[in-house]
Batch of 4 targets.
Target 1
Amino acid sequence: MTTDTTTQDTTPGAPATGETVLDARGVTMRFGGLTAVRNVDLTVNSGEIVGLIGPNGAGKTTFFNCLTGLYIPTEGEVRYKGTVLPPKSFKVTAAGVARTFQNIRLFANMTVLENVLVGRHTRTKEGFWSAVLRLPGFHKAEAASRARAMELLEFVGLADKAEHLARNLPYGEQRKLEIARALASDPGLLLLDEPTAGMNPQETRATEELVFAIRDMGIAILVIEHDMRFIFNLCDRVAVLVQGEKLVEGDSATVQGDERVVAAYLGEPFEGAPGAEEAAEVAAAEAETETPAVETPEAETSEAETSEVAADDTEAEAPEAEADDAETADAPAAAADTTTDTAPGKENDR
Amino acid sequence: MTTQTTAPDAASTPATAPSGLIGIPPQIGRALATGGGILTVISTFLAWTWTSAFPGDLTVYGYPGGLQVLVLIGGALTTLFALASYGVKGLGWLVPAGADGAIKFAALATFATAWYTVIAISTNLGGVVNLEPGGYLVAIGSLAALLGALALPFEHPEADPIDPDDTSWEHFKHRAAHRWTTVKAAFASGTARPVGKLPSYVEILIIVAVLALGLFVFTYGIGTEYDELFIGFLLTAGFGFAALNKSGLIAQASQITARHQNITVCGAFVAAAAFPFTQTDDQYATLGVYILVFATVALGLNIVVGLAGLLDLGYVAFLGVGAYAAAMVSGSPSSPFHVHFPFWAAALVGAAASLVFGVLIGAPTLRLRGDYLAIVTLGFGEIFRITANNLDGTSGPDITNGSNGISSIPNLDILGFDFGAIHNILGFEIGRFANYFFLMLVITAVVVLVFRRSGDSRIGRAWVAIREDETAALAMGINGFRVKLIAFAVGASLAGLAGTVQAHVTYTVTPEQYLFAGPIPPNSAFLLAAVVLGGMGTIGGPLIGASLLFLIPNKLQFLGDYQLFAFGIALILLMRFRPEGLIPNRRRQLEFHEDAEAPTVLTKAGA
Amino acid sequence: MNELPQQLVNGLLLGSMYGLVAIGYTMVYGIVQLINFAHGEIFMTGAFGALTVYLYILPDGTSMMIALPLMLVGAVLVSVTIAVGAERFAYRPLRNAPRLAPLITAIGLSLALQQAVWAWYPNATSAIVFPQIEGGPFKIGSVTIQTGDIFLFIAAPISMAILGYFVMKTRTGRGMQATAQDPDTAKLMGVNTDRIIVIAFALGATFAAVGAVAYGLKYGQIDFKMGFLLGLKAFTAAVLGGIGNIYGAMIGGLVLGVAETLATAYIADIPGMDKFGSNAWADVWAFVLLILVLLFRPQGLLGERVADRA
């Protein structure tokens, strides 16, 4: 099943779609005996808004944490514009991936402006001596940071509250501030973790506008949400994560039309699903045999040809697919095909 | 004047009309407060006792002395605030945040000091018969003022509904809590209206006046000659400060100083530098320089604890490292190295040595959770002392001269200025300790500079961000380990720098000067307490905290053996009731009192 | 120079004392993430509690065979009372305060306890002689167990066994483990976390009290400052073993004790280190060990690397 993922509403100014910004392959995360994320592949192309949905506990946030270096994936790798992301969250940010948090994590006792200035950290250089001795360039750099921070506050509409303490902002504005803070690091990819959680419809609408505006700045976006309407309005492509595995990926229509997604949300087995036991066995077997193979071939091949060429949406789970996977890399962008193969193993072996 | 002793009204009065804490009509209360204030002022010009056996000579008519002066100040303050509350022309500027809260605290200050004096006279001399009429008068006057002040109306807080299913103990707790909030509300006041833009020379004059007042209060405190006067000073200064705070004057003053930060800081240093000139002998300059050493180190610690949120429990060891390093290159006969570095080189050596130790301690621990740092620094403080004790030639190599320490450290001589000699500046005799006071002031200035400039920059913001939420800070691209290590190393080297001067001031460095906790500051526990008491993350906080923590044990000799016990209890109570310290950082205050104002709950778990 | 087996046994005995005190640190830390800085002082007051029983409650000349159990009861009583009181009145109100607040409270409490004993316990301004068990040392093969260590030799394994049973088999013990892992969920599951926390404090104090009696017997004297350094060492032991892990505390204590003993005994044999072998350096080596462990295995010997819940 192949779905077309060319984005419809890219503004002319935005970079041409097709350049792979984020490329996660075979990401698996285990905590002790518990596998929270299993062999998930996901790509995000520039100018794209990609959604990641799934029922509670599907491993969305864990996957996010793997992308941002907060967790080191047990298996698999994550590339940003062709280079493997380092396993430290501050280095990931420096590389160009910014994020927000599901539970807002602002620096509550700093002012709004200071929060955004902290976001500028990776894009400025002034160190301790520069600050203490006020070396030449300090004031200039500080002023530039402030100007940029104010610009961003203007962008999200918080400029008039720059001197307020972050904790005194109402909920919706705290969300906006978190986005502004993330944008301050001039990211190429922005990861939004439930940006509309707890918002009323108007606020959600406003956030939607904001996300489109950010996309129009040329920043690719990966967003986790529960709010389906929000996701389907927003996203060029949606991936569904169920029980740690990618179930479906495709455009809104495809995903909405997929009965397995509905079933996953309602918690019912769908027609033709493999028996739970079998699935568990298959999954276990996969985990045993296949996963070592994931790392080796992929790591080498992709290093060789991960120029900006292809939006290589990788093949999903089937063990044999590994071999093709390496080859598909050269496929032209137009053929950015997303296999939404059945992932047999939703009933996890826990 | 009849002072009817009304029984204090139970605080459970329904919150209908605003009324006072006690059941006197507000109008009468206000009059009572004013009258009591005036009466108190008058009484300070009378004799309070018949004999000069009570220190301060309170026997003279027409000339207040000792504690009377303090009561006079309190009474005058009460009267002025009370008159201002009547809307007397020309006094309105005194109470930009409303007069009532200020009156209450001023009356409390007067009452506490006056009654303390009266009681002290009676117990010292054996009975109330030793009081002259002035003594009775001041007691009545200040009581009247206090009762009147407490009768002033305030907004009663709403009581939370009581759950009838609760046990009686919970009912009791509930009522106690409500009573406490009521009392707090009684002393509350509004927020000060912002100061209009004044001509800048006026604003600068105001700053000068504020600083002069500060210097005066500090000098007075240092110069108090007997326990009673110091306690009186603490009572008056403490409640008086609260009164000024409630009146809104402090808020306005800080608005003005915020507009001229550089002038204020410079002015503060000028005021501090003026301190030795106010003293006639070197005795108080000695106190001054010790306070300054203590305060400077506390300020250095505040970078580590207050800004970056790293709990360093062995900070005094870095002071010790610096002091030992400087002592060893000072040309002291008991140093194994027979070298004599110039001061600048010794200072560098001291700071560098502390820096090295800071990095050695910080590098393995700062990657881990903060609690590990606390315990490792604590261990380091202890190990430093043990090592210094052991390196005496018998238990180990002969480096530090063991428990005898490095003694006879020669006085500094910078560019021909001999710090050991008495100099004559502008007709004032400036002795040894005053000389060192000036040198130490320079070091303090360095620390203040580092604190201010680094705090208000990229690195400082990174420190605060790490303190606030480390995970989020990392996600903002901050290299947490590196940034924390910088804070830790900076703190360590500043302490080392202060140590180089301290070594010269004290002639001798011994391991026992650098304990975790001991009766003489600076030690790690007192340093931390100075930071916490003063207010974390502020500059003024540790300075004031250090002054208080140094002066209180020094002045209140009677505390003696119980001093450390009292100190421990005070720490517990402080954390329980005012964790943000005396001078709260606006950030900190909010952080500690998370209950009310936060519109949303900022949880720190589970993104 | 003593031979190795003797040194090992000495180290194990010393280490089991560290371990007994370390349990208190690790339990409290595991559940409320608080370094109960005053735990060393709780240990110290336990020793004074035991001494009080001997000096002021029992008639003079009571045989140690009778006195020792009663002294133990006294020690436990005092330690537990103080620990539970501290939890209730000093720590509990601060449970949601910033991390620094309870730690500073703990420092204050530690100072206050030390000073209270110093100021008000009769003759406590200097070290006080602790009663000793009669009888001489006994030998197992070539290894001598000193008289003062006999109590430790018996009490430490028993304490461990009791603790192990408690944690593994009892309902409260399991609730404790649950609370340590996830306090909020444990609460939702009906675990009374307040009670669990009090029990953790009390249990930690109990073992500290046993350790305190052992200390008195081992060294023959106690003083008001004994809790500071021993507390520090015990905490080191807890970290060594993996803080939060109750067995780890004991293992860490044993490792620390052995390492310290061996360092004191043999480090002088290393060329160039001949001056660092004396007893005066034992604490320094313990500390160096702590730094090394934090450098190379920060989660401790038994600790698991806990992922930061982002």
Target 2
Amino acid sequence: MAEPLPVLEMTGIVKEFPGVRALSGVDFRLFPGEIHALLGENGAGKSTLIKVLTGVHSLDGGTITLSGTTVRFASPSQAQQAGVSTVYQEVNLCPNLSVAENIFIGREPTRFGRIQWKRLRREAAELVDRLGLDIDVTAPLSSYPLAVQQLVAIVRSVGTGDADGQGAGTKVLILDEPTSSLDRDEVLELFALMRRLKDEGVAILFVSHFLDQIYEVCDRMTVLRNGTLVGEHMVRDLDQVGLVQLMIGKALDQLEELHDQQLHSDVGELLLKADGLGRVGGIAPFDLEIKKGEVIGLAGLLGSGRTELARLLFGADHPDSGKLTIGGKQVSMSAPNDAIAAGVAFCSENRKTEGLVPDLTVRENIILALQATRGWTRPIPVAQRDELVAKYIKALDIRPANPEARVGQLSGGNQQKVLLARWLITQPKLLILDEPTRGIDIGAKAEIQKLVVSLSEEGMAVLYIAAELEEVLRLSHTIGVLRDRKLVAQLANGPEITTTRILETIASGEHQ
Amino acid sequence: MTTTPRWRALTHHHLFWPVAVLVILLLVNVPFTPDFFAIKMTDGHLYGSLVSIVLFGSPLILVAVGMTLVIATGGIDLSVGAVVAITGALTCSYISDQADQSALSGVFLALGIGLAAAIVCGLWNGFLVARMGIQPIIATLIIMVAGRGVAQLITDGQIITVNSEPYKLIGGGYWLTLPFSIFIVAAVVAVTVAITRRTALGLLVESVGGNAEASRLVGIRSMRIKIMVYVFCALCAGIAGLMISSNTSAADGNNAGLWIELDAILAVVIGGTSLLGGRFSIGGTVVGALVIQTLTTTIYTIGVPTQTNLVFKAAVVIIVCLMQSPKFRAKVFGAKFGGKRAAVPAPAETAPAAEASPKMEVS
């Protein structure tokens, strides 16, 4: 198939931040008249790539070619002059000005230093008309809903340089998460505009977390993972399962062998039961049962509602609906205290902001939860405290093994172990681990997973959340699959459950 | 300046800088008052500049100790000066109404009334901050402003004088050759250290101040803790109010404890407790309060003209705060000694950028 020349070609793009290599040698091309999706999980480097392209960040390596000439933009306005426009999720316009003024703000048609208002309105109206939109350009922008304001923002960026014939006209339009706050009809309207621009030969770079939308409107996609290029595919050549695999980064065959490592321990009686528990904007009402000694893994993309589900079980957020029964008793989940009293423990994915008190020592951080349950008047006796702390520092191999060390100075893996120790000391019935292995080294990862298995064998229930499917698959008796803030399926782990199966469920959103 | 490990351990101790500043300030007095450190025994009482500093600094120490716990939870209490005035006014007006002002029962009842009022003020502050979620600086501003009005209402805008021997003891009497207020301060400090360090209160206070969200998720009832520290702070201010009014045998609703909240906050900061909350040091606060009282005494002994003494005080406070700032020390000593220390400020300035960068990469 003979391809036309790309309008934009980025080759070997490298971008480094202190301590982080955000992009390492990424190639990216964009053809005129196509809608191209840029995909990847959070932190994969999508935003960085866009910012490098539009001159927000400087380039540490690689070349950018626009219409055959090598360019390097020093600022977004320079990029815009050259025909590369960006529309962000938040609309950066002036709501109190008219639509026409917003479209031409900063580059109004002038004569003898005066703005030619009539011409401005006429050209704005023509532009809006040409793009098939029904908008009164003399009305203030604030009189339109957010979705229309977003369309205006697109019109504005497309209209670059039209007024006085300066500039090149938009060749590349970047839409960064434009649909995240739109409803279905508004999305359709946006897509219609995108298709019209595509027919005019504009190359559109589209970033969205909604896979269905990608398949609806895009022609081609580029997938990034951890700052590297995973692949460029035509949308019609790759199904959603394949795409999710590419994003998460696990080839199926690598995972197959892990199926032998199922847990053999028996699960006990019912421990926790959630009936229609839900929170608006957090997670749709769900039913969930957790038995003693059971490990429930939650699988789903980032932002699919995994953390939100866990927070409801712990009372960290207040549910809007449903009820929660722990050990046969209904629990009013008004605060974490209630959950802790009922034997639930929660290790947040945000160690720094929601877990540790960085100024306090390892010892103080470890005893904090137990002390909180005892209240301030009953300090843990010094001998017992030191023994407990020493025991868990040894059992979890926390380094340095110094209870006086400030916890803020420990490495990520050791901080995670301190948090685990804090909750294990309270001997919970249900331990919720939200991304316990994120950002820690491989050795600590394995230790934590082994610990989960042995805790489960001792009868502790564990709710295990991890982005890495193989961890979930290896540890769980039951796998809860989340998609778009809904618990869409609960799969009993067994020989027939494979990562493919989980990926399919994530991609399709239904229990098959 | 050597850099042996022992010297390092010493300079890194959290009380090193506060104590160093205190010692320097005390030494400054010697050229002006050669017998500054002398303590004489007259009429069975000990007299001397050091005794005076502790005596006159007693109310400030009390207020600052209470303030320390409030600041450790990440809060602040501006109302302590007004509480000092209210307590003094209530107690003195009750005593002055008695037929026999020296009757012990009447004096004890008066003390109880005064301290109860202080506790009510503390409950109000704690309620607004912990329960209603009002910013501490705003919540406590209410009593700071309104409280003086209340004190004046109690005293009818007059200065109430009392003539009560037992009451005089609190702030102006002597016991075992020393001013009685020194014993009160010692007792309050000892009790504070005991209830914060012998129980788990200190740990929970530091946890709430160090990371409020993590503390909530670990099940600490931070609301209760916060109310407790505001009540305790007000109680300390109340005792200071008794001391001040007892010392002069008079309650002045307008001027008793005026601006003491600012001196107390300063004492806490000099003592090494961060205004951001978290780790606190009662010992540091006591030293900090002594630094401020010594400064006030020094201003008089070296004969700074009265109209410029606030400016002088401000200048010294600026120097003390700069000395305490690691960044400032690195800059000054780095420039002086050269070498690797000069490099310290640079990472400090680039640190925010380094922290921000991973966020940029997260889409």
Target 3
Amino acid sequence: MNLSMLLDMAADGFGDRVVLGRQDSGLTAERVRAAACGGAAMLREQGAGALIYLDVNGPTFAVALFAAARAGIPLVPINYRLSAAQQAQLVAHHPRATILTGPEGTQLQVPDGTILTTTQWLAEATSRADTVPADGSVAESSSPAVVIYTSGTTAEPKGVLLRHDNLVSYVLGTVEFAGAEPGDTALVSVPPYHIAAVANVITNLYAGRRCIVLEQFTGEQWLELVRSESVTHALVVPTMLARIMSADADHSVPSLRSLAYGGAPMPTKVIEAALLAWPSVNFANAYGLTETSSTVAVLGPDEHRAAIGSDDPKQRARMSSVGRPVPGVEIEIRGTDGTGEALSPGQVGRIWVRGDQVSGEYAGAGSVLDPQGWFDTRDEGYLDEDGYLFVGGRTDDTIIRGGENIAPAEIEEAILALDGVDDAVVVGVPDLEWGQRLESAVVAAAGVTLDPEAIREHVRTQLRSSKTPDHIVVWDELPRTETGKIIRKRVLERMALDDASS
Amino acid sequence: MKLKAGQPLYSVTDDTTLLVIRSADRQVSLTCGGHEMSASKDTGEKLPMEGPAGHGATIGKRYVDIDNVVELLCTKPGDGELALDGVALNLVAAKQLPASD
């Protein structure tokens, strides 16, 4: 079982279908296989130990993934926006790497490796395509296919190892081969170093769905591209959907049938606005981690519609659920008291997952799975009595105020529900009396002036006084990763700076 | 032979290739075109097909045995009929899962 097998199936099954790029100039499945074979031949000649991808997303990313698979080495996408020093630190883990960069090149020094631009590399791989036989792949199913560095919002980035087995299991468990309708088009707007970008390449190819990329996201451009390329399927992170909905542009998307979202908690306000604006679109909320090869639970379109149209509080609450496990994945909620006992429906604890797609393995640190194969997501949550999963937030973000464990997610949700609040974060600031005290930063919607005291009053009545931030500041924006996760350590740094200067 | 999840199997009568998705915890006889399938890619010269032709495997489709225990995915198509312990395999209907990425 390896990724080359999936590409071979696509090329054998629907080789003349355009699967990457524009309809008139894109690559067919057969051309992708040929270019991957050409790319693999180059990697073997270079004696490459890894293929590092250091550019914006594009068709070359897909070819690079399958070329690395065929050459039996991992693809390592690295954030091209990191500083040269940060990039060098990650590249150092991968000796004899071939590095693909944007047109501007790189300042990186790699005496034992090879540096090429993605354009040069694809041209060379394609030119060799017709002279290289489509020979069998050398990659073992248990060898690493991809190494993805986590965003490191709370700690140093860790390299997550995804083996061929993990990724192939995910695809076989969740996607029907050649299941796409002719003319189906998927729009990818997440950067290549995000697990969703890797998953998108493989699942769209296996489904036979053409895939196009928006390199630099803006709400206006996304809407325009959906219309001009007749996009039928798209995946966004919550900050992108918020920007799409608030864009001062034509919001009509007649071709769009399916919109999946995930990557960070979705504010209810934003998803409800999207559901009302696009009643015929099928929404799917996907929950997953890099360590689980992307999606482990999905809330589907019918469940979204049932939730928004319902007066029943239980149905209504489902809007904030991430749905039920995908085939082949088990989910368990365990207590955090150290006994690790499985909890009953409704009880909040730590989310654990198990399945063939779950890697739970880090480069240089090994596997963190428990002896029965379960992975601790370090996310807090609960299952309702029908098996729907609700995710609270990272347990690493938990604030301990005077001995009480407080999850910031609940308070953030309460603040975000207020009209005029566009974004909100709650953090624990070191405090002599309480150990940690609650402080919050909020972002006002355009043209709105927020009153911090009124927000505090709202939280006090919604929740209780121990969950009310002592201090609320209004900022222009919150520090988030490009994929929408709040960088809490940077929020704390800025608050400390503000305190010192006031 | 005993099947193992993730294992590829090759027909000795045509190009049919299957991938084991779910296996049974027992010895089984899996045939394509009347001959036992091989765990090795190197199947040598193809043997003449036995039994009905034209009921072979389609690429990307899944097949299960009559007890719904063993599940196989066709990764290369062929004409030979598939059977487990002499009973023809059934085609699995396409599943409906919302596209999540």
Target 4
Amino acid sequence: MAQDKPEGTWKCYNAAMDRYEEICSNVLEEAEAAGMPQKQQLRLELGLEEILVNIISYAYDEGGKVWVRTSVADNLFCLEFADHGKPFDPLQKDLRHDDNLPLEEREPGGFGIFLVKKYFHAVEYKYEEIAGAMANHLSLWLSLQ
Amino acid sequence: MAKEFLQTETAGANGWTVWAVTGRIDTVTSEEAYKMGEDIVRRNAKTVLDMSDMDYLSSAGLRVLLRLKKLAKKDGKEFTISGPSGIVKSVLEDSGMDSLFDIRASLDELD
């Protein structure tokens, strides 16, 4: 999945819910500036919400940072996340409910990642060094049109 | 980022109670939405969530719908959805959640 990824600038935030709306707002402003139409921005927001809430909720036991970066290449908007929390690849499993299970037994936790995989052009996970330490590095590409 | 989120409860046709949400059910609004939905479902035999003025639904919103559906089923109540469009409709369909609800195109279809 070798997409072009021009170097954008990482923005660093506390991985906490009180920063959530600010991070979303910054990313959506960058998408707007890149010319992404409203309909695609809603899809972008689905991915943003899913990954960001995941990092804020689960990456760290006692708080930490999240890095967010956006860039544009070949008519694709690239949204990247990095954190220094426990190694975790959210793309590893399709956690969507099993249609054969009765309603009461379905596990709703995996809807989000399933939708991200469906709506985004490409997604990629790497565990690599970013900002001076090993990091969960998640990249999501969404068509600008 | 002041995103719109409004909820109302009104009496609909044929004994249905209409819970209308304007804007979005997402991570930020899901708890508030669940609280109102839970209250309405507990008090009424037939509840319909009017989504015609919603423009965004995330997995946090899907979890609200699933929790309310389970609650309604446990109590022998009806809980369904009306009027989703755009990405709200796509999210319901692509997640498979639409199969759990007898989704109405509009409130005119309540019987």
